[in-house]
Design goal:
Blueprint: E1 8-13, H1 23-39, H2 58-64, E2 70-74, E3 77-78, E4 83-84, H3 87-96, E5 101-103, E6 105-106, H4 114-123, E7 130-132, H5 134-137, H6 147-156, E8 160-162, H7 183-188, E9 194-196, H8 204-213, E10 217-220, H9 228-240, E11 247-248, H10 258-266, H11 282-291, H12 293-296
Parallel strand pairs: 1-2, 2-5, 6-7, 7-8, 8-9, 9-10, 10-11
Antiparallel strand pairs: 3-4
Helix pairs in contact: 4-6, 8-9
The structure holds zinc ion.
């Protein structure tokens, strides 16, 4: 039997209500989830939904990671949006499963001690990357006052996962969510490896042109299959700009699982079935799931 191709998950969360999420955040997350379910015809399931809808505890995370080769996990620290997952939670879980789980830090750049926190995360907690979300954290990624933080990441060799795209909480500041706002960071820190989450939705085209010109900037397909029309267009755009090799597999667990992500990608052409519109070939789907990650995470190949 040929060996099963290996898949990784570059984007997962640990968090739970009420320890890490404010009342308002949890309420709005529930409302957003209900909209998603209504659209997909899965409303019956809503009977069990409450503000714990996005709870992701270590046991849940471990269960869905069973068939995945390696998994990146992080929390998010965003004071302005009511999210605060201690980095210790991530470190403890990652340390319990070093063969599979890689923990990344999150620090809030609006907090004056964010660089000391990052030092602590690297030196003491042994975390291996950084998650940032300017829309949640209310900072301008083009503001040079954050350059020392990015310089530290480059020096430590820490990749950054950016939530650079839209989101649902009323507290978010979408003006800091535009993917092109990462161009200056990428140009001033050419050795810094970065991933733009969720194909930068709904600015997927901006992501494709940015990753074409920035060698160390990649993107992930987490949480985009719920919007099949955008997803298909984004992948056609990626192929037209020749960047399909820079798209990584991620689930955004608990919002999705790797099983959802694989079936979402395998069904990406359904929305244009029976038309003459271009299709995303199976070989490109295979690359996204099983090959591209080896360039970003060579240590796992
Ligand atoms: Zn996420």
């Amino acid at each position: 039997m040929p060996e099963q191709p290996r898949i990784i998950d570059c984007h997962t969360h640990l968090m739970w209500y009420p320890d890490h999420l404010s009342e308002q955040y949890a309420e709005e997350a529930l409302a957003a989830k209900l909209v998603k379910l209504k659209r997909s015809g899965g409303l019956a399931y809503s009977a069990n939904l409450d503000k714990h809808v996005y709870d992701a505890k270590p046991d849940d995370h471990w269960r869905v990671s069973r068939d995945v080769h390696k998994v990146v996990v992080f929390g998010l620290q965003a004071k302005a949006s009511g999210m605060w997952v201690p980095n210790e939670v991530i470190a403890e879980y990652a340390a319990a499963h070093p063969e599979k789980i890689e923990g990344w830090a999150s620090v809030d750049p609006t907090q004056p001690d964010c660089r000391e926190q990052l030092d602590h995360c690297v030196k003491t907690l042994k975390l291996k990357g950084l998650k940032l979300g300017p829309v949640y954290q209310h900072f301008d990624p083009q503001d040079r006052s954050h350059w020392p933080l990015f310089r530290k990441c480059q020096q430590y060799g820490l990749p950054i996962m950016w939530h650079q795209g839209t989101t649902f909480p009323t507290a978010a500041r979408l003006k800091w969510g535009l993917p092109l706002q990462l161009e200056d960071v990428a140009m001033d820190f050419p050795d810094l490896k970065m991933i733009i989450a969720h194909l930068g939705h709904p600015w997927e085209t901006d992501v494709m042109v940015l990753i074409r010109k920035c060698p160390n900037v990649y993107t992930d397909i987490s949480a985009v299959h719920y919007r099949p029309w955008r997803y298909w267009q984004a992948l056609v755009t990626a192929m037209e700009y020749g960047v399909e090799h820079k798209i990584l597999p991620g689930s955004d667990f608990p919002s999705g699982t790797m099983d959802n992500i694989v079936s979402g990608l395998r069904n990406v052409n359904r929305v244009v079935e029976g038309t003459a519109l271009p299709k995303i070939p199976a070989e490109v789907q295979d690359m996204i799931l099983y090959e591209n990650w080896k360039a970003f995470f060579p240590q796992w190949a």
